[in-house]
Design goal:
Layout lengths: L7 H17 L16 E3 L2 E4 L2 E4 L5 H4 L7 H13 L7 H9 L14 H20 L8 E7 L3 E9 L5 E10 L2 H4 L3 H15 L1 H4 L3 E6 L3 H8 L4 H10 L3 E6 L6 H6 L3
Parallel strand pairs: 4-7, 7-8
Antiparallel strand pairs: 1-2, 2-3, 4-5, 5-6
Helix pairs in contact: 3-4, 4-5, 7-9, 9-10
């Protein structure tokens, strides 16, 4: 929740009314989680304040972390990721041609990455970042959340659908697993990916229906296995505060989350 005002005197008055309302309704505030007198704040996916509305750089930080590929397999994985959002990247094939040429038979397995390739990759990242930044969340519609877990990390993409049915990205995120988490079973890592992603985007999706796409069914796993483990019980309880529905998506089709979990 944010209290926004046009000037300092008005803000003091608005803040006083807000705190009075909190007291009258019997609510409590955790002061450690409250910030006062901020000139800019993060609010529903944007940076708001000082007469400006800017995109939240945290939504696209993962995109900026994409590193140059070293092998043909890496090239195909990167291009599969960007191709998934081809509807939001103008002239994708033309811009990516210099990169896709690296998959030709006459190119060695360890690709020769040059300045022209890096410039093309930077342009693709910039185009996708702009598409993400310009997207306005519609809280009357459901969200999609694709998740995946590799042996070393988890990745996810939050999106909504356009009128034409295309998945339009809202935010990307990935997280490196700890040594302990890397030793979890595959289904445990997949379940953790779901819980982590839901918590990551909680402020946006809390009151909405969320459709989770994964190549495993961590929801059934948590329901069936939670009595056997305190950790899984905590995850199952955390899941109950969200309105989620699971949809199976094979790994070869879960391109975005698969790529992000292997950054």
């Amino acid at each position: 929740m944010a209290v926004v005002s046009m000037n300092w005197n008005d803000h003091l008055e608005h803040l006083e009314k807000f705190l009075q309302t909190v007291e009258e309704t019997g609510l409590t505030l955790n002061l450690r989680k409250c910030n006062f007198a901020q000139n800019k704040i993060k609010f529903v996916g944007h940076i708001v304040g000082s007469g400006c509305i800017e995109p939240d750089p945290g939504k696209i930080a993962t995109i900026n972390d994409i590193q140059p590929p070293t092998t043909k397999k890496d090239v195909r994985r990167i291009m599969g990721f960007f191709s998934y959002f081809r509807n939001f990247i103008p002239a994708l094939a033309e811009k990516a041609r210099v990169i896709t040429d690296l998959t030709r038979d006459n190119v060695p397995t360890k690709v020769p990455w040059e300045r022209k390739h890096q410039e093309a990759l930077d342009k693709l990242k910039d185009d996708l970042s702009k598409a993400t930044q310009l997207h306005t969340i519609d809280f009357t519609k459901e969200f999609g959340l694709s998740v995946d877990a590799s042996a070393t990390a988890v990745g996810c993409c939050l999106f909504q659908w356009t009128e034409e049915g295309h998945e339009k990205p809202i935010a990307f995120a990935s997280l490196k697993l700890t040594d302990t988490q890397m030793h979890w079973s595959t289904i445990e890592r997949e379940a953790f990916a779901v819980i982590w992603a839901l918590k990551r985007f909680r402020s946006w999706i809390f009151l909405s229906r969320i459709i989770i796409y994964s190549d495993h069914n961590p929801l059934s796993y948590l329901t069936d296995a939670s009595p056997k483990s305190a950790k899984l019980t905590r995850w199952a309880l955390a899941l109950q505060e969200f309105n989620v529905d699971f949809r199976y998506r094979p790994g070869r089709q879960n391109t975005v989350a698969d790529f992000l979990s292997r950054l």
